[in-house]
Amino acid sequence: MLPSHDVIVLGGGAAGLMCALTAGQRGLRVLLVEHANKVGKKILMSGGGRCNFTNTGATPANYLSANPHFCKSALARYTPADFIELVERHGIAYHEKELGQLFCDVSSKLIVKMLVDECSAAQVRIDTQCQVHAVQQVEGGFRVDTSQGHFAAPSLVVATGGLSIPSMGATGFGYELAKQFGHTVLPLRAGLVPLTLSGKHQERLQDLSGVALPVEARHGKQAFRNFMLITHRGVSGPAILQISSYWQPGEELKLDLLPGQDAHAWLLEQQAQRPAAELKTVLGDALPRRFAQRLCEVWLPNRPLRQYNEPQLREVSALLQAWPLTASGTEGYRTAEVTLGGVDTDGLSSSTMMSRIVPGLFFIGEVVDVTGWLGGYNFQWAWASGHAAGMAV
Ligand code: FDA
C-alpha cells in the first residue's frame, strides 16, 4: 500500500494539534484523525472556558512520572515563552491569574482557532468524526483503517489523551495501542480530582458543604498551599486537587489549617490577650466560623483559653497544623482533570517521543506517563511533547 501521508496523528487534542502543525510547517503531508465531532474539546472546556494555556514557571519539578527526568528535554526545547509568542502572534489577549498561570482574556475558543489556523496554513488535513478500526505495522510504516478509509504513513503519532471526562471523547485507545506494539502501560488513576469521604469522616463535614478555607495540604514531602472547599461528597478546591495526584487509597493527608502561621505562638498570644474567650470563638476569627465550631465539637476540647496549660495548647496547635484527613476515594475520571500513569517512558526517546520498540511510532501528551500539576502545566507538556514529535517525524 502506498503511503497516503508522511505522518498520521491520532487524536486532535492539544498535543496532536501541536504535533500536526509543527510537522506540517516542515513541509510534511500530515493527516490528523479525530473521532469526536470537533478537535480540541478539552481545550474549549479548560480553565473555566478561558484555557490556562501555560505556566510561565513550568519546570520538570512540576510533573509526576516514574522517570522524573524524561520530560526535561522536550520542556527545555519548547518553553512557555515559545507558546506565548504563538499566542501573541495571533493577537490573543491574556492575563496572569496567579503563580504564573496564563489565561485567555476572552475565550478558550481562540486557542483552538489558533491551532486549527496554523494547521490549515501548514496544509494539515483534519478528519473529524473518523473512527479508527485498526492500526497495523506494514512495510515502510503503518496502516490505519478508519470509518473514512484506509490510510498509510511511515510515521504514526498517538495523541489520544487520557481517560478523564469520558463524555468529552476520552478513551483508553492510546493505552491499548501501546500494548499492541509491546509497550508497558503503567497503572492508571485519576489525578487533579476531588476526594470523597465516607462514614464518620463524611458525616462530620457534610453539612459544611460550600465552606472554603486556605490550607496547606501535605503528603510526604509534597505540600500545596491554596484553598480547600468542602463539598457534599468530600473535599475539593485547588489545594486538594493538587495533592490528590500524590495521594493513594488508604493513605492519610495532613492539612495545615493556619498555613504560614506559627499556631502555637498565635494561641499563646490570644491566651494572653483574651483569656476568657473560648477556643471556638478564637478559632472562629481565623477560620470560617462554622468550621471552627466543628473542629471544637469533634477534634478539639472547647473551653476558655485560660484553662489550657502549655502542653495542652501545644496539642491544639499541633492538630491545627496537621489536621488529619482520611479520604475514601476520588470522584474518578468523571471529574478528574488528568490521568496519572500511562505509556512507560522507558520505552520512548525523551528527545523525540519515538518508540524504542517500533521505529516510526510516537506517543505524546497525556497518554504518556507524564502528568503536570494544576495551573497550565499539562498543556505545556502537550505543546512541548507535541512539538518534539512534530520536529522528529
Ligand atoms: P486531549 O484529551 O486533549 O486530546 C485527545 C484527543 O484524542 C481528543 O480530541 C479525543 O477526542 C481524541 N481521541 C481519543 N480517542 C480517540 C480515538 N480512538 N480515535 C481518534 N481520536 C481519539 N490543563 C492545563 O494545562 N490547563 C487547564 O486550564 C486545564 N483545564 C482542564 C479542565 C478540564 C475540565 C480537564 C478535563 C482538563 C484540563 N486540563 C488543563 C488538562 C488538559 O486538558 C490535558 O492535559 C490535555 O488536554 C492533554 O492533551 P492531549 O492532547 O494529550 O489529550
From TrEMBL:
Q: Which UniProt keywords apply?
A: FAD, Flavoprotein
Taxonomic source organism: Pseudoxanthomonas indica
Q: Where does the RsdA/BaiN/AoA(So)-like Rossmann fold-like domain lie?
A: 5-391
Cofactor(s) this protein cannot do without: FAD
Where is the RsdA/BaiN/AoA(So)-like insert domain positioned along the sequence?
A: 189-338
Protein name, per record? NAD(P)/FAD-dependent oxidoreductase
InterPro entries, per the entry: BaiN-like, BaiN-like_dom_sf, FAD/NAD-bd_sf, RsdA/BaiN/AoA(So)-like_dom, RsdA/BaiN/AoA(So)_Rossmann
Annotated Pfam families: HI0933_like, HI0933_like_1st
